[in-house]
Amino acid sequence: MKNEAQNEKPFIYDFSLEELQDWTKEQGEPAFRAGQIFDWLYVKRVSSFEEMSNLPKPFRMKLEDAFQFVTLSEIAKFESKDGTVKFLFGLHDNHAIETVLMRHNYGNSVCVTTQVGCRIGCTFCASTLGGLKRNLTPGEIVAQVVQCQKLLDPEDQRVSSIVIMGSGEPFENYDATMKFLHNMIHPKGLNIGARHITVSTSGIVPSMYKFADENTQINLAISIHAPNDALRSKLMPVNRRYPFNEVMDAIKYYIEKTGRRVTFEYALIGGVNDRPEHARELADVLQGMLCHVNLIPVNYVPERDYVRTPRDDIFEFQRILQSKNVNATIRREQGHDIAAACGQLRAKHMEATTG
């Protein structure tokens, strides 16, 4: 099993328990060996096959010959005053990705990246600077969570939730994202509850329908950022490929199929999409839908010329939505002092290494 990230041995974290069971049988070993491997990977969280001490040495050598561990080298690590930790990880091919660990009073959440860069082109986001370099493998996404869990291990704490809201569009790396998700919720893995995981998409319509049919309890969030087709196309070029109405139809299908609430992420940009008329139009579109709006004060990105919406205007936007019975909250900002918005740290790193 080769993948696009490397031409050598596949990453052990790329495999599901069932695939490892098949592989161990092919090696003439009992299927329970796969469960032991999974335990070493996700519960004991070792970094080498040699550490898997309850496996026979010849079998460990077979593992060494067949697989490799994901190497995430820590290029940078910043800790915010609020406890948020942002990592810039180097990959084996010299690309870099970001991962964020957020500490809440209800638990620890990890925001993972699914692609190196992004091709969606949202005009307010630093992730798209430099375009898309490649997809991550399932194991490279898994390794981000495991690395954060290792940071928490000495504190006897655990990762309790995951948001797939880092750089990249997860639904353009659909198969790897779904495999990562299944490994995260597996009871023999990190055993994170599906309802504590949220995947966010910019509106890749075919994958949204596919996700609706997955029969999973994993939450879905949509980056909407505008109440109509014309404005959304200016902010999000992907809207020209999958227009506003098609995205809304896919969301309605998802809600009807799953009975689950959808979260709409709406980045408020000063003077662009944050006026009372935008709030009223958005409320009219969403009224009666099983949904929740997460209002996000936009992060200042030097390469983009957007300003943050004034605080009073944010509250007024929320008030208008709620007056029309659309549930809306304002995202609590975390890591603002350490450039914790998607792509900011990687953009600085790219500038330093290429400039």
TrEMBL record:
**Coiled coil residues, start to end:** none
Q: Which GO terms describe its cellular component?
A: cytoplasm
Q: Could you say which cofactors this protein requires? A: [4Fe-4S] cluster
Q: Kindly identify the residues recorded as the active site.
A: 98 (proton acceptor), 342 (s-methylcysteine intermediate)
Citing just one GO molecular function, the answer is:
tRNA binding
Q: Which reaction does this enzyme catalyse, per its entry?
A: adenosine(2503) in 23S rRNA + 2 reduced [2Fe-2S]-[ferredoxin] + 2 S-adenosyl-L-methionine = 2-methyladenosine(2503) in 23S rRNA + 5'-deoxyadenosine + L-methionine + 2 oxidized [2Fe-2S]-[ferredoxin] + S-adenosyl-L-homocysteine; adenosine(37) in tRNA + 2 reduced [2Fe-2S]-[ferredoxin] + 2 S-adenosyl-L-methionine = 2-methyladenosine(37) in tRNA + 5'-deoxyadenosine + L-methionine + 2 oxidized [2Fe-2S]-[ferredoxin] + S-adenosyl-L-homocysteine
Which compartment or compartments is the protein found in? Cytoplasm
Residues the record lists as binding S-adenosyl-L-methionine:
168-169, 200, 223-225, 299
Domain of life of the organism encoding this protein: Bacteria
Gene Ontology terms describing biological process: rRNA base methylation; tRNA methylation
* Details of cofactor binding: Binds 1 [4Fe-4S] cluster. The cluster is coordinated with 3 cysteines and an exchangeable S-adenosyl-L-methionine.
* Domain Radical SAM core residues, every copy: 104-337
Which residues make up the binding site for [4Fe-4S] cluster?
118, 122, 125
Top EC group: transferase
Describe the function of this protein.
Answer: Specifically methylates position 2 of adenine 2503 in 23S rRNA and position 2 of adenine 37 in tRNAs.
Q: What else is known?
A: Reaction proceeds by a ping-pong mechanism involving intermediate methylation of a conserved cysteine residue.
Q: What name does the UniProt record give this protein?
A: Probable dual-specificity RNA methyltransferase RlmN
Q: Organism source for this protein?
A: Cohnella pontilimi
Q: Which gene encodes it?
A: rlmN
